[in-house]
Task: structure prediction
Amino acid sequence: MMKIKNLLLLSTLMLLTIGSTYGQLEWVKYEGSIPEYAVIGGVETNRSLPICRCYYKGGMHPGKVVEKGCNIGYGGKEKVFKNYEVLVNKGVTELDWVKTEDGSLPDHAIQAGKENGKPMYIGRASHENGTHPGKVFSVGKNNICNIGYAGKEITKNSFEVLVEHKSDPNVARLSHDETRCGYDMDKLTPKKMLKTASKKMTETISRKKEKTKAPSAINAKYIGQMMKERQVNEGESLVSSNMKYQVRVTDDGRLVVEEVIDRALCEDGRILIFKSNEIWSNTNKKGNPDLDYYLKFQDDGNLCIYSEQSGFVWCSMSNGINGHHLTISNVGHIEVVDHHGGEVWPH
Result:
């Protein structure tokens, strides 16, 4: 479970061409287990779907890892391969999923392979109750996305394409600083984390012994979207794909959207956010800061805040409208969307 969390955190990419490795992006041969820093392209019934590629009939085809196989769409059928490569990334280059409905290909699309000289790009599309990675290629003047599902090759005209964005050196950086990446987020609550960090950073200032205040860190638990029955606790957040915005529950029980000012990407896959500015809140009324709050996207489609001590605090009232997942966009908008990508909350 811990590995899956770390896999979800490091889905940033650098430019790829067939047979080459750039920066920290690599295609790693599958050898019985998903490699560390695998790039997650989609989800299906609470299962993450890493991006893979395999060679078949003279072409290199991108697809999705399901259990122990690489699934692609080809010739009207879903094909499963045991010999394949998984896309991994140890760098800090940002990725974005750019939606297209007119058959166009966005700039800086990530190429995973070729077939008969035709480029194959990494795409994904919503289908049934999931988001599935697949291959994007041209048919005539337009591009389509083909995915494998339930034994068939499914063609999608509305899909997203994975593109590269350069890192902002003032915001994104790979940090090896123990005072920034030294927290064990799975063993420490936010309150204990601050106490531990402060203890590590104690130093003598002038002639008086004072404790240097440690920077509080928010752990970006999910990137881009959060599925049903998932939750974020205090000290955790859902961060946008470009990592410039986050949504979280505050220690006084409010739902907030914040612009990320300072963050660190750690070697173990965690994204820690140290500074952010609040740009939206569900309420101006603050709750009891001594309570422990968490934000949950429920199975009925409701987005709710609860306190472990006193129970219900707030809900979005979005139940019964076919909400599939919670998302935060690259401009800071939070939405509950259906499995077709349509907004169902806020109205």
